[in-house]
Amino acid sequence: MKYPIHTESKPVVGESARRLIEAIETGQAVTNERALALAKRIAERRLRKAQNNAQSK
Fold first, then answer.
1. Averaged over 28-49, what is the pLDDT?
2. How many angstroms separate the CA atoms of 2 and 7, rounded?
3. Which pLDDT score, from 0 to 100, does residue 35 have?
4. φ, ψ for residue 28 (rounded to 5)?
5. From CA 31, how far away is CA 37, in angstroms rounded?
6. What does the longest C-alpha to C-alpha distance in the chain come to?
7. Strand stretches in 1-57, DSSP E
8. In whole angstroms, what is the distance from residue 5 CA to residue 38 CA?
9. Residue 57: in which H helix or E strand, if any?
10. How far apart are the C-alpha atoms of 16 and 30, rounded to whole Å?
11. I need a surface site. Which of 6, 17, 29, 52 has the fewest CB within 10 A?
12. Do the beta carbons of residue 57 and residue 51 sit within 8 Å?
């Protein structure tokens, strides 16, 4: 994988490493809270639009 200039790949240690290992062993994903909140907002917005479109037909 190519990285932009001045980017270093660093080892995962501590709490982050524990969470990553648990996710790999259970087949889950590791996300940060901001990304998860964004995904929820997008899903809710799409659901509202679909419901509004269904009601207007």
1. 89
2. 10
3. 85
4. -100, -175
5. 10
6. 54
7. none
8. 28
9. none
10. 9
11. 6
12. no
| Average of per-residue pLDDT across 25-40 | 87
Please give the average per-residue pLDDT across 39-55, as a whole number. Answer: 93
**Mean pLDDT along residues 4-10:** 72
Q: 49 is written with which tokens?
A: 């639009």
DSSP symbol at 5: T
* Residue 43 in tokens: 């899903």
**Site of tokens 């990553």:** 20
Q: Indicate whether 2 pLDDT > 90.
A: no
Q: Which amino acid is present at 24? A: I
Using CA atoms, how far residue 52 sits from 5, 16, 17, 38, 42, in Å, is 46, 41, 43, 21, 15
Compute the residue count for the chain. Answer: 57
Tokens of 39: 């995904």
Give dist(CA 8, CA 54) in Å, integer: 49
The residue assigned the tokens 């419901």 is 51
